[in-house]
Design brief:
The protein is an all-alpha fold and about 325 residues long. Helices cover about 80% and strands about 0% of the residues. The protein contains eleven helices and no strands.
Length: about 325
């Protein structure tokens, strides 16, 4: 045999842990193929190592499970204490409301108002998983519930307008985080961006519908709302599709976004007037105009020229980078 058994026996633990050099590993492997006693020792040590690893993994999992249970009990206890603290002012308001002979009028406003801080403190303590998602959901529901109770108490008819506006306002900053939550992200897969855009569109349209229904002249409102909103929605989806689906480099995408934005600014009034049924009118190319419309037309042409200029420069940079690659 080429190598001494004592030397190989010293190297076997390192070989099992894959902690020796390539030359040492090759030497051990070659010797094990020639020496049955060392091969038997290797198998025994490997089995023993596996048993130890399994024992350590089992002990680690047991410790983590115990700690998780401890933290869960403490979180539930803390949530119960905080919930009890929130219940005190609710109980006081109930007693005062009944004692003053007002029935249960403004008590429900106080009750639903306390749901908001509870959703931000008690809910994350009580929920074992997806705390941020549950907290945001609880906050949204409690806020809309408060709006509903206030609307009923005041005898108003503005609930749907306010609630839809709240939904749209909350969706703008929080919807990207919602679609990244584990249970939702697993279902959406690679369509998270599309889901965010769809959420923005649905909540915006819902808000405009609720505002229109509550307005004094719904027909006129919906006509103007559609004329001013549809071009912007189309622009928003166009930018998203350009960035999401076109396989261009970053410079080309940036150039396309700049030019599309400048073109949208240039054509926005034209599209609005066309949707309102007032004919087709493009900005006049005359920088000597002094009236309000003339100034607007001049600005539109200036933005279009500037956007095309900067888009061309960025696209040229992208083309140079592609050529170098």
């Amino acid at each position: 045999m080429k190598y001494d058994c004592d030397l190989i026996c010293d190297l076997i633990p390192l070989y099992i842990d894959d902690a020796c050099s390539k030359a040492s590993a090759d030497a051990v492997r070659e010797h094990l193929g020639e020496c049955s006693s060392c091969a038997e020792l290797y198998e025994d040590m490997k089995k023993s190592e596996t048993a130890i690893d399994k024992a350590m993994i089992s002990e680690r999992d047991e410790v983590l499970t115990r700690q998780a249970r401890t933290f869960k009990r403490r979180s539930v206890l803390a949530g119960g204490i905080i919930g009890g603290i929130f219940a005190l002012p609710i109980l006081i308001c109930l007693i005062v409301n009944l004692a003053s002979g007002a029935g249960l009028s403004w008590f429900f406003i106080v009750l639903t108002a306390m749901f908001i801080p509870a959703s931000l403190t008690v809910v994350p303590l009580m929920m074992p998983d997806n705390k941020a998602l549950w907290t945001l959901g609880g906050f949204t529901v409690s806020l809309i519930t408060l709006l509903g109770v206030c609307c009923l108490y005041s005898g108003g008819s503005w609930f749907f307008t306010a609630a839809s506006a709240v939904l749209f306002g909350l969706s703008v900053p929080f919807l990207p985080a919602v679609v990244r939550a584990k249970p939702i992200a697993a279902r959406l897969g690679k369509h998270k961006g599309t889901a965010v855009m769809a959420g923005y569109t649905v909540t915006f349209v819902l808000m405009m519908i609720c505002i229109g229904i509550g307005s004094r002249s719904p027909g006129s409102f919906f006509g103007y709302a559609a004329a001013f909103s549809l071009p912007m929605l189309a622009y928003m989806w166009g930018i998203f599709a350009l960035i999401r689906f076109l396989r261009w480099n970053a410079a080309f995408k940036a150039a396309a976004c700049i030019f599309l934005s400048a073109l949208m600014f240039f054509l926005y009034d034209t599209l609005v007037l066309l949707l309102l049924g007032r004919g087709l009118r493009f900005p006049t190319l005359d920088f000597t105009q002094t009236g309000d419309q003339g100034i607007i037309d001049s600005i539109s042409w200036a933005v279009l020229f500037a956007g095309a200029f900067f888009a061309a420069i960025i696209a040229a940079v992208g083309a140079v980078r592609n050529k170098k690659k």
